[in-house]
Specification:
Two copies of one chain form a homodimer. Chain A is built from six helices and two strands. Chain A has a two-stranded antiparallel ribbon with strand order 1-2. Chain A is mainly α and 142 residues long. The N and C termini of chain A lie far apart (63 Å). At the A-B interface, α3, α5 and α6 of A face α3, α5 and α6 of B. Chain A binds a DNA duplex (30 and 30 nucleotides) through α2.
DNA sequence: ATAGTTTTTAGAGTTAACTCTAAGTCAAGA
DNA sequence: TCTTGACTTAGAGTTAACTCTAAAAACTAT
C-alpha cells in the first residue's frame, strides 16, 4: 500500500515540491524509495504529515518540528523531552486561542461600527470610536 | 502629547526598526515629524498600531492591512469595502479558531500518550496510537 | 559646552518557507 | 515501441517581514 508523491500531494493539499522540501529538511525520514528511486509514501507517512500540519498550524517552525522528529528517532531516552515539548506547545496554543478571542472582539466591534455608520451616517453613536482608544490605554498604558 | 519612536517601541514591544519599516510600507500615514525631522507619535497612532497588531495577529499580511488603510484614507466611499474586509477577516478568524481547537485535541492526545508511556512503559494502552491513524483516514480519506 | 544617547536616512542583509527550473529518468496506455 | 505525463536531482529564485549598518544630525544631562 504505497502512494506516489503526486497522490500524497492531492491528499494533503501540499505540493510535490513542498513534500520534497520537507523530506530534504528531515521531516519525513521514513519515506521509502522504490528500486528506481521514486518515493513511496505509506499510511504512516501520512500520519506524520497530519502531525506536521498540526504543529505547523500552531506556529511551530519546521526546525522545531525536526527537533521532535530527531528525538522520536533517538528512541525512549527522549520521551521526557517530547512530552515537555507538547506541554510547551499546549501553553502556546492556549495563549494563541485567548489572543484570537481578543482579536475577535475588536473585529466584531469594527463590524458593528461600520454597519452602524453605513446605515445611519457618520453621526452615529460609534462616531468617536471610544472602544479602541480605551483599548490602547489598556494595552500600552496611558 | 507626542511620543518618540523609542517610547513607542517600548510601549508596543515592536522595535524602532520595525516601526520605521511599517511607516515605509504605508501602515502609519498619520505619524507627524518634528521641525528637525524626528517622528512624533500621537495617541491615535498608537490606536492604529493596536489595530495593526490585531489584524496581523489574525494572519492578515501587511499588504492587506495597507489596503485597509488606503481605503480609510480614501474616505466614506470605501465604507463598504472596509466592512466587507472585516467580515471576511471574521470568517477567517472563526476558521482559525476551530482549527486551533482541533490541533488542541491532537496535542492533548499526545500529552496523554507520552504521560502514559512514561508512567507505564511502552506496553500501555496507547501503544499503537490509533487516534492518529483514524485522524489520517478522516482527513485524507481511504 | 560637551559627552552620551537617540534618532535620522538609504540601502544592504537575513530568515523561513517555500517555489521553480532544467535536464534527465520512469511508467502506463495506444 | 512510442508518447505522454509523472517523477528525479541539484540548485537557483522568490516572498514576506523584518533586521541591521553606517554616518550624520538631534536631543539630554551635567
Amino acid at each position: 500500500m504505497g502512494y506516489s508523491i503526486g497522490q500524497v500531494a492531492k491528499k494533503t493539499g501540499l505540493t510535490a515540491h513542498t513534500l520534497r522540501y520537507y523530506e530534504k529538511e528531515g521531516l519525513l525520514p521514513f519515506v521509502k524509495k522504490s528500486g528506481s528511486g521514486l518515493r513511496v509514501f505509506s499510511d504512516s507517512d501520512l500520519d506524520w504529515l497530519v502531525l506536521i500540519e498540526c504543529l505547523k498550524g500552531t506556529g511551530m517552525s519546521l526546525k522545531d518540528i525536526k527537533q521532535y522528529i530527531d528525538w522520536y528517532m533517538e528512541g525512549d531516552s527522549t520521551l521526557n523531552q517530547r512530552l515537555e515539548m507538547f506541554k510547551r506547545q499546549k501553553l502556546k496554543l492556549e495563549e494563541q486561542m485567548s489572543q484570537l478571542q481578543k482579536h475577535m472582539e475588536k473585529i466584531n466591534y469594527k463590524i458593528a461600527y461600520y454597519t452602524e455608520i453605513i446605515a445611519n451616517g457618520s453621526e452615529g453613536v460609534f462616531e468617536r470610536n471610544p472602544e479602541l482608544a480605551a483599548e490602547r490605554k489598556r494595552v500600552y498604558g496611558k
